[in-house]
Model the fold of this input.
Amino acid sequence: MEDPTLSRYRTFLVGWTGVMLAHFTYVQSKTGWGAREVAWHPWNLWHPFYFGVVNATFVVIPFLVFGIGIARRYGGWSSAIGRAILLLGTGTSLWGLGNFYWFVQNAKGEEAPYPSLADAGYLAVLPFAAWALWELARVVGIDRSDWALLPLALAVAFPLNAWIMLPQGIGAGTFDTPLTTAISTTYILSDVVLLGVGIIVATGARRAAGGRFFAPVLAVVGSIFLLYVGDLVFNYRIAKELFYNGEVSDLLYGAFIILAATATWLFLRADVRAAAAVAQVDDADWEPVGSAQERAGGVALAPLDEVATAILRGQERVMGEHAARGVARSVAGIEVAADGVVSATQADAIDAMVREFRALAGPLGEMACWTAARPALARHPEIDVASLRRFRGDVTPPPRTVQAA
Done:
């Protein structure tokens, strides 16, 4: 039976997307793609002004109803994924509230000044999204060699952004005062940095293909790309006096918001699937991820190495090989060979490795360690891994065949 939260959240996202597309189509049919104005009536919820609520402000609902709960499933603020979910949800919610201020100003028949409270909301998403990307970079195993490519990523992202936004911004008067210049420059540089970091994280996510976090991380990066493109189109159309409420840049912003919310749903799906995999483990199938000895080519491993190798193999299924091995190698007292066999100096080193995986993926990371290590710990009850003590009450050694005397 499917998890009810997963089903409800998916239904909300599909319905939200359908309403947004229907609203966008209605706006174009009534305005002739901006050629005609539509009289404002507050009770006409299909008016172009309301598109800014549908495409952005609605994001507060899934964040409060679903997003916070999903972050808690990953340990909330105590894990990298939990923090990323909370940060991205907070940032997109503030962006949506900025759009609500834009709606209110339009409904009052006034143009929002520049800068305004709307810009405060729009700018707020940038540091929150950057922080979320930083946390996800740890999850997919980004290392120093990857960050060395950041200047190249920025070189790719900056020229188009500057070519579109600088001349158009100057033409629109957004560099007329020190304050507007600072705000406009922040928009340009933040978009470039976000996209540059997003490119790096996407590279890491590709290496994590096969892990449970590949799809949600890629969705987050995709949402950042849509924000970047939306800003380019919006600034160009504002400068050319082509913008109207409910037009193509608003649709791009809506796609950015919905894809960011979908990333949260994908993280929920990853957790649900991991929990289902754990539930399927029974006494007849204690090694769902394969034996550590098989990895070692049939050679029996030392007890500590067997436990540590089993944990790494389980985490490779969750995080992908590159990310999981990177985490293991970062722990003192743990060595990982090219074939994935782990050498552990003591139980405390294994405990530190488990805590590192929990720091990234919360309870899911810890449970993956336990599920993988359970058979080895049953064979070697003398090994005490502190982080897994609370699970060991239901460890029952596999039945042994006793020959009659």
Remarks:
- The radius of gyration is 25 Å.
- Confidence is low (pLDDT under 50) at residues 282-290, 394-405.
- Strands lie at 334-336, 342-344.
- Residues 292-388 form one domain.
